[in-house]
Structures are given as C-alpha cells and as structure tokens.
Design goal:
mainly alpha; Addiction module antidote protein; Cro/C1-type_HTH; 0% strand; Lambda_DNA-bd_dom_sf
C-alpha cells in the first residue's frame, strides 16, 4: 500500500519575479513578439511593467497608472502609440531584423 502525503499546493508562476535585468526583459519580450500572439505580447508587457514598477513606468511613459492598468488588462487593445511609449519607458526599442 502506498502512503500519500498532503496534496501539493501549486502557485501561479509570476514571470515578473524573474525579470530582474535588461537582458532577461529583452529576451522575454522578443520571445513574445516571435510568438505572433497579441494577447501574449500584452501579457509579457504587463509582466515587464510590473517587474519595473507600475508607478515608475507610468510616470516615465507619460501615462496615469489607471490608463496603464487599462492598457495592459487582458484582452485590451492598446494603441500602438501607447505600446511605443511603454517600450521607450522600459529603455527598449523596436528593431526590424532580416530573417
């Protein structure tokens, strides 16, 4: 007879906890872009913004915290201008590379 222990307690993975340097952030967002999934990109941006600090990123992007939360909400459709402001506030840039 097999003895079982207490049930496992699983916790949700919070990617923001692991985004502690610029290289990790750039790799994470690059992977999200390569996935070609707007919802995943929005989630990744949200993770990065939380890792950097919502208030500071909002300030650096020239947005209110409330508008930043709305722009990063699941299934939101932020304007490109908003995404570009966030990318700049995060100290990143968009680049096009040949395949």
């Amino acid at each position: 007879m097999t003895k079982t222990g207490p049930p496992l307690k699983l916790v949700d993975l919070d990617a923001a906890r692991y985004l502690d340097n610029d290289d990790a952030i750039a790799e994470y967002l690059s992977a999200a872009l390569e996935a070609n999934d707007p919802d995943f990109l929005l989630l990744a941006l949200s993770d990065v913004v939380r890792a950097k600090g919502m208030t500071q990123v909002a300030r650096d992007a020239g947005l209110s915290r409330e508008s930043l939360y709305k722009a990063l909400a699941p299934s939101a459709k932020p304007r490109f201008e908003t995404v570009a402001k966030l990318v700049r506030a995060l100290g990143l840039e968009f680049k096009a590379l040949p395949r």
